């Protein structure tokens, strides 16, 4: 799948105020590129800058869209309806934050799959990630993610 301007909410359960990705620019089985506009009302804003925790959440959501794609899209590239997944960061292997973006900036995050382990119950993956404002590197790191379908019945 390589479409232009993919709606992130088709691949993540996150919604406002925790949604930290606006749109997917490019996504296939191993790479994803997202954009996010930093707005003043974002819950991670501190002193007119996106806090480190906001950058890391953007990284996690960008990375998890590649893994979550397996749960949200069938073998024919059709979106499944009413999919409920749970996911979390199982480890931040490395993270280096070079600079924080400020309110009004648009950041672009590029994540590449390093490794993936898939079972019938869950997926684990290691992703390499870089976040930029224009050509300036803001964040680089590697993150492990765990995602599974939520089978609990309320």
From TrEMBL:
Q: Matching InterPro entries, A to Z?
A: ApeP-like_dehydratase, HotDog_dom_sf
SUPFAM superfamilies of this UniProt entry? Thioesterase/thiol ester dehydrase-isomerase (SSF54637)
Write down what this protein is called: Predicted 3-hydroxylacyl-ACP dehydratase, HotDog domain
| Organism whose genome encodes this protein | Flavobacterium fluvii
